[in-house]
Amino acid sequence: MFNEIISEHFMNPRNVGKMSNPDFVIEIGNPICGDTVHMFLQVDSNSIKDVSYLSYGCSTSIATASILSEVVKGKTFNEIASYQKSDVIKWLG
Fold first, then answer.
1. Which stretch of DSSP H or E encloses residue 38?
2. Is the Cα torsion angle 75, 80, 83, 88 positive or negative in sign?
3. Tell me: the pLDDT tens digits for 36-87?
4. Which long-range contacts (CB under 8 A, 24 or more apart) does 28-34 make?
5. Which helix (H) or strand (E) holds 87?
6. Whole-number Cα distances in Å, 17 to 3, 9, 51, 62, 85
7. Quick check: 14 and 69 in contact, CB under 8 A?
């Protein structure tokens, strides 16, 4: 039903967990299906030093949070701002 990338990140999510003392907390939800992601960031200057998350939802939601946590780590806010929906679709395979 799902490709290898989604299955791998769902079964073995990366960077999952609540971070102690994050600099930023981002909460994203979908009221239609009920999926919710809480992303915790530690920043250094203008880049993301560390990231973790808690994801409540379907396998695709969890896999997306896992992939994003890997992609954004070490990136600047300007780099992240340039990401498009098509980038996320590509990362999900």
1. strand 36-44
2. positive
3. 999 999 999 889 999 999 999 889 899 999 999 999 999 999 999 999 999 9
4. 30/57, 30/61, 33/57, 33/58
5. helix 85-91
6. 24, 14, 9, 12, 25
7. yes
Q: Using CA atoms, how far apart are residues 57 and 36, in angstroms rounded to an integer?
A: 6
Query: Is this structure's pTM higher than 0.70?
Result: yes
- Region for 69 from its dihedrals, namely left if φ exceeds 0, alpha if ψ lies in -120 to 50, beta otherwise: alpha
Q: What is the number of other CB atoms lying within 10 angstroms of the CB of residue 33?
A: 10
Cα separation, 5 vs 20, whole angstroms = 29
Can you tell me whether residue 9 is helix, strand or coil?
helix
Q: Are 68 and 88 in contact (CB under 8 A)?
A: yes
The model's confidence at residue 1, banded by pLDDT at 50, 70 and 90, is low
